Amino acid sequence: METTVTRNAALKPAALLLAVLMLAGAGCQKNKTKAEKEDVHDPTIRLLSARLAAATDHGARIEVLVELENPNRVALPLIESQYTLTVGGSPSLHGEDCPNRTLPAGGKQIVMIPVAVPAAVAAGAAYSVEGSVSYEPPGEMRRLFTESKIPLPSVGFSGSGNLQ
What we know:
The protein is α+β, with helices and mostly antiparallel strands. The protein has helices at residues 7-30, 34-37, 139-148, and strands spanning 44-55, 60-69, 76-87, 93-97, 101-103, 108-117, 126-135, 154-162.
C-alpha cells in the first residue's frame, strides 16, 4: 500500500515548531531587565578642581575632583580612571586608579583621583589635567564587550587652573 503525504500535512510540524520557537523567544524577551531594554547613555563628567592634599620636600599628593552624573535608570559601576597631569614646568605624570564605586541611577557622585607627584609642589601652582573614567554597562552589553574584547566605555574630562 502506498501512502502519500499532502503538502499541508508536511507543513504542520514545521509550523508547529516555528510557533514554539516564537513563543520561547517572546518569553525570553519578557525576562530581560529594564536596563537591557533601554538605551544606556554615557554619564557626563566635569572637572571640579585639583588641590594640594599633602606636600614634602620630596613630593606631593594632589587630589583631582571630578563630578559624574548618570542620566540612566540603572546604576553604572565605575571601573577605572586614567589621567595625565602636568604641574608647573614638571614632566607630565600618567596614571590610573580604581574608583571602586557605583554611580547611582539618576544620581551624581564626586570622584577623587589621587595623584602622587615626585617633586615639591606649592599651592597655587599651575596645572593641566586630562583623563577618563570607564564604566561597566548593564547586562547583555557588558557580556558582549567582554566576549569581543572591546574596551569598556568611558567618559573624558580635561581642564587647567591653579592648585588649591
